[in-house]
Specification:
About 70% of the residues lie in helices and about 0% in strands. The protein contains 7 helices and no strands.
Length: about 220
């Protein structure tokens, strides 16, 4: 029951955090699909504090999902910590990155935390995809089922849920890996621009959809 509530809370919290971040992008100056997403949280932006709070809320949601998903718990908690670091260490105006622009220590810390956080989240997707394929025990006594639920094991009869969780993780991985590779190449060889901005937003959209979907699907499996 506790994991059930944590899974639902994770989905709600991630949705709320992503919603706040989207609001800051749309309501802020300029076109919302241009520039790095993190630019909304830089000093001088009208909704900088709101953006950082939204990112912090999203990080909390990732941590809650880590508590609900036993096998990917460590990876999700690490990803949450890195997202939290990005929220408390904003980049400077324009979020400059080497080798095209001079950068500050805060820029490097923020960027490293963001990139590593996405990489760890992709690893969590992979672990979720792999572990969700394992079949549940065919039979279990009432006492055994209660003990398994307390340990975070999926209850008997949730094959459909596990299949949905695995399918969602697989789709998320298939989308995340090429988007992340394209984003990395764009950052290295092109620099700041519309292409990188669109790739970043697509990557974040996939991540948020996976987090929310996994949280909602994990709720019945965590009971």
């Amino acid at each position: 029951m506790i994991r059930n509530r944590l899974a639902v809370a994770a989905a709600v919290t991630v949705t709320g955090g992503a919603g706040v971040m989207l609001f800051t992008l749309v309501a802020g100056p300029g076109r919302w699909w241009q520039g790095y997403v993190s630019e909304a949280g830089t000093a001088g932006q009208p909704y900088a504090v709101s953006y950082r709070l939204g990112l912090g809320l999203l990080a909390l949601g990732v941590a809650l999902l880590g508590r609900a998903r036993r096998h990917a718990a460590l990876l999700l908690l690490v990803a949450a910590g890195l997202a939290g670091t990005s929220s408390v260490v904003p980049c400077s105006a324009g979020c400059p990155l080497p080798p095209f622009e001079p950068t500050t220590t805060a820029d490097l810390v923020h960027t490293a935390a963001s990139i590593l956080g996405m990489a760890v989240l992709a690893a969590a997707m992979a672990v979720t995809w792999w572990t969700a394929a394992r079949p549940a025990a065919p039979q279990a006594t009432t006492a055994g089922a209660k003990a398994g639920a307390a340990a975070g094991a999926p209850p008997v009869g949730d094959a459909g849920v596990r299949k949905a969780v695995r399918r969602l993780a697989g789709v998320a991985l298939v989308l995340t890996l090429p988007l992340a590779a394209a984003m990395a190449l764009t950052m290295l060889f092109v620099g700041r621009g519309t292409v990188g901005a669109l790739l970043e937003r697509a990557l974040l959209l996939v991540a948020v959809c996976w987090l929310v979907g996994t949280g909602l699907l994990s709720a019945p499996a965590a009971r």
